[in-house]
Specification:
8 strands; ProC C-terminal domain-like fold; 263 residues; alpha/beta; 2 domains; 14% strand; Rossmann fold; eight-stranded mixed beta sheet
Length: 263
């Protein structure tokens, strides 16, 4: 890893800059081994990293780098027009299959991943899947890169990656919807909107940290509350007996289906 040069195509976007910040903070590579391309040839917010090379020329970046991280929107893949046959390619483009990346760029050493802007604070979850040609060294690099962004796992299929794209996508959509519902309930009980909002934000912050720091699985947290037989248990029993789980699964199914067409 000491001699590798990494290039981020689309590195000035929301996800690209989050990944770049995680990489620089973790120091898995020094800044003089990192290239970033953007349409403007400029990169704001990284002025202190004087070793970074920023370019508007994707071909120049590809020629200089060993690993290319594709951070562009799925629809922009055809526009980058680069040949990547001899590169390790890591893609965080939602829904874009390994086969399509090969068809478009000629690459064979491909790792397809899912991450999120939470990477900037090392709080992302980044599952990834490797094409057949990917080597053990390639895998080690990808795992190190995504561990710099938070937590990461190699998974076994692209179909599984689509599920994670729906569940842990780039914004906390499903979690935010649940938070919105709780805040609306508080407001319906006469609680001021700003207080309801603040309370729910703090609740989800604390709950997320508690689950992240505990060895217990989410189902064990739920069962623990039910076994305690307190006020929360009464509400959880109602939710478990309702159609809530089925409807949530339908929403996730819809997101997975969209992921498989968006690329």
């Amino acid at each position: 890893m000491t001699d590798l040069k990494l290039g981020l195509i689309g590195g000035a976007g929301m996800l690209g800059t989050a990944l770049l910040r995680a990489i620089l903070t973790s120091r898995i590579l020094p800044d003089h081994q990192i290239w970033v391309s953007s349409r403007s040839g400029q990169l704001q917010g990284f002025e202190a990293q004087t070793g970074l090379t920023v370019t508007a020329d994707n071909a120049e970046l590809v020629a200089a780098c060993d690993v290319v991280l594709l951070c562009v929107p799925p629809a922009a893949l055809a526009d980058i027009k680069v040949a990547l046959a001899d590169k390790l390619v890591i893609s965080v483009m939602a829904g874009v299959t390994v086969a399509r990346i090969t068809q478009t760029t000629g690459a064979e050493h491909i790792i397809r991943a899912m991450s999120s802007p939470a990477a900037a604070d090392a709080r992302a979850y980044s599952p990834w899947v490797a094409a057949d040609a990917v080597t053990a060294a390639d895998r080690d690099f990808a795992q190190a890169l995504f561990e710099a962004c938070g937590k990461a796992d190699e998974i076994t299929s692209e179909a599984q990656l689509d599920v994670f794209t729906a569940m842990t996508g780039p914004v906390p959509g499903f979690v935010a919807f649940f938070a919105e519902t709780m805040a609306q309930y508080a407001q319906s009980q006469g609680i001021a909107p700003e207080i309801a909002d603040r309370a729910v934000r703090q609740l989800f912050l604390g709950a997320g940290q508690a689950m992240a720091q505990s060895d217990a699985r989410p189902a064990e947290h739920v069962q623990g509350m039910i076994d305690y037989a307190g006020t929360t248990a009464a509400g959880l029993e109602v939710l478990r007996a309702s159609e809530f789980g089925r409807v949530l699964a339908q929403g996730l199914d819809a997101s997975v289906a969209r992921c498989r067409t968006i690329g």
